[in-house]
Amino acid sequence: MRIGYKLFAEGYSPQELVRQAERAEEVGFDFVEVSDHFHPWLYSHGHSGFAWSILAAVAMRTRWIELATGVTCPFLRYHPAIIAQAAATTALLCDGRFTLGLGSGERLSEHVVGKGWPAVGQRHEMLRESVQIIRLLWSGGYHSFEGKHLQLEDAQVFDLPETPPRIVVASGGPDSAKIAAEHGDAIFTTEPRADLVAAYREAGGDGARYAEVPLAWADDESTALRSAREMFRFSVPGWKVMAELPNPVNFEAATELVTEDDMAGPFGYGPEAADHLTVAQRFVDAGFDHLTLVNAGPDPEGFFDFFAKELDEPIRTLTPNG
């Protein structure tokens, strides 16, 4: 079992995220991942720094902890050639500690370049073509590519690591789980869904299974739940909504009626390690072996201390029930 820490780029400044990455290494996390968005989910978040600059800074300020995007949409706002170059450079800066997380994106961040927002089926096709282009450029030399949606003309990435980064593909359903199996090296989800792991394996996937575990640490339960609602109520409507709303104001409106009780179901919250382990167990039972802990509590420093003293050892020893 490998345990990661989510650098919540919407909730903290770039400088604070780099500091949190350093602390994550100090207390023993195996990896950190950072979201790659243009906009925050909610206006109240107040931040949304450029993920690749943050990763470069983290690479220079840490020694052994692994880094990942969680996740990057490699088309529309970007072109996959740019992501191939960015990921290769990041891997070099951190001496091979980088994993590239890819997904089909959300309108929230991708519509900003004015290219519209394709239906999910087209986005999946674009994701497949993106991975093909990225791997082509990582193979060295000049390459061109003519796909249904994406093109590459006579391009070469000159600075390449000896071993290309792993590609982890985000999945919210069986179709994207199949993409992860056929084109990625691992799968990434945000829900404890055994059906996604099963779909990944049935399609031939045999890599790591990443998942984000929602937690909110605080000295008391009410503070933890209040903070979880303030920071993460955008997640309650689910991905079919989260992928389609265009701006923070829409998420503010869509989640206005979300209550603290709504957060209590999916979240581990409060000061007791047992409550957090119960939520982590759901993901272990579903078949995940790389758990990224997302702290929606109000005190990151307190959470790091809590992890080091009470959560680190027991969460690594979790095994599937049954």
Automatic annotation (TrEMBL):
Q: Which residues form the Luciferase-like domain?
A: 11-234
Q: Which InterPro entries match?
A: F420-G6PD/mer, F420_G6P_DH-rel, Luciferase-like_dom, Luciferase-like_sf
Name the source's superkingdom. Answer: Bacteria
For this protein, the record's Pfam families field holds: Bac_luciferase
Gene Ontology terms for molecular function: oxidoreductase activity, acting on paired donors, with incorporation or reduction of molecular oxygen
Q: Which keywords are on file for this protein?
A: Oxidoreductase
What NCBIfam families does the record tag this protein with? F420_G6P_family
Could you identify this protein by its name? G6PDH family F420-dependent oxidoreductase
Q: State the organism named in the record.
A: Lipingzhangella halophila
Q: What is the lineage of its organism?
A: Bacteria, Bacillati, Actinomycetota, Actinomycetes, Streptosporangiales
